[in-house]
């Protein structure tokens, strides 16, 4: 038997033993139910698939924004200790691009998704769907994308055409299309 086989046989045996040990059940944890997973199954696709029921107006969004967002993002989305949200229109092709919701983001639905998952920074996932729709409407209004009297729901939000939508290259992988969802 060659020296290399003498090396690899014990290594292979060790890997098999490790795999066998990892397959053991230790009686910890429990199987997750659909009910336990539901509060975390909140992903929203670019086409709006996954958006919940609800609706929110720009006016209601201003109230939520003032209470929950302005301290970090500025009174009008101009930025503060957190990113700037408004402005930057037409700046991406310049030497000093300003990346904001209105100048950079390709889909309004992903704005909803981000706010829903991560905001407010000190208490993520605490806003109700109506509050998230409202803040989304307000931030879109700050960027002159929706009118002051706009009221957004799942259908209306998915229909919003962002200024930089065509500024991105589509992902050609078959599992990432606009309706690709996990099983």
In short:
The protein is mainly alpha-helical and 183 residues long.
Q: Could you please describe the fold and organization of this structure?
A:
InterPro entries: Cyt_c-like_dom (IPR009056), Cyt_c-like_dom_sf (IPR036909), Cytochrome_c-type_DH (IPR051459). It comes from Xylophilus rhododendri. Residues 56-143 form the Cytochrome c domain. It holds the Pfam family Cytochrom_C. GO terms for molecular function: electron transfer activity; heme binding; metal ion binding. This protein has 183 residues and is mainly α. The protein has a domain at 52-166: Cytochrome Bc1 Complex, Chain D, domain 2, CATH 1.10.760.10. 38% of the residues lie in helices and 3% in strands. It is built from 7 helices and 2 strands. A two-stranded antiparallel sheet has the order 1-2. Helix 3 (58-68) crosses helix 6 and helix 5 crosses helix 6. The longest helix is centred in the N-terminal third of the chain and has 20 residues, at 3-22. It is extended, with a radius of gyration of 23 Å. The N and C termini lie far apart (49 Å). The model has no long low-confidence stretch (mean pLDDT 88).
CATH superfamily of the domain at 52-166: Cytochrome c-like domain
**CATH classification, class level of the domain at 52-166:** Mainly Alpha
Output the radius of gyration. Answer: 23 Å
Strands, count: 2
Uncertain runs: none
The helicity comes to 25-40%
Q: Examine the coordinates and then state which fold CATH places here, giving the name of the CATH topology of the domain at 52-166.
A: Cytochrome Bc1 Complex, Chain D, domain 2
Give the overall shape, derived from the CA principal axes.
extended
Strand content: under 5%
Mean pLDDT: 88
Q: H/E element string?
A: HHEHHHHEH
CATH architectural category of the domain at 52-166 = Orthogonal Bundle
Structural category: mainly alpha
Pfam family, one: Cytochrom_C
Domain Cytochrome c: 56-143
Signal peptide: 1-23
GO molecular function, one term: electron transfer activity
């Amino acid at each position: 038997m060659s020296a290399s086989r003498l090396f690899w046989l014990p290594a292979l045996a060790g890997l098999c033993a490790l795999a066998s040990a990892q397959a053991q059940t230790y009686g910890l944890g429990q199987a997750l139910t659909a009910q336990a997973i539901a509060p975390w199954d909140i992903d929203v696709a670019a086409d709006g698939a996954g958006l919940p029921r609800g609706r929110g107006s720009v006016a209601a969004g201003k109230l939520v924004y003032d209470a929950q967002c302005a301290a970090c993002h500025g009174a009008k989305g101009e930025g503060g200790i957190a990113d700037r949200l408004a402005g930057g229109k037409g700046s991406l092709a310049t030497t000093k691009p300003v990346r904001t919701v209105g100048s950079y983001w390709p889909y309004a639905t992903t704005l909803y998704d981000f706010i829903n998952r991560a905001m407010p920074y000190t208490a993520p996932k605490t806003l109700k769907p109506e509050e998230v729709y409202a803040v989304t409407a307000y931030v879109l209004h700050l960027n002159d994308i929706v009118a002051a009297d706009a009221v957004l729901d799942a259908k209306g939000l998915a229909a919003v055409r962002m200024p930089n939508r065509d500024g991105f290259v589509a992902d050609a992988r078959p599992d990432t299309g606009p309706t690709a969802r996990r099983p």
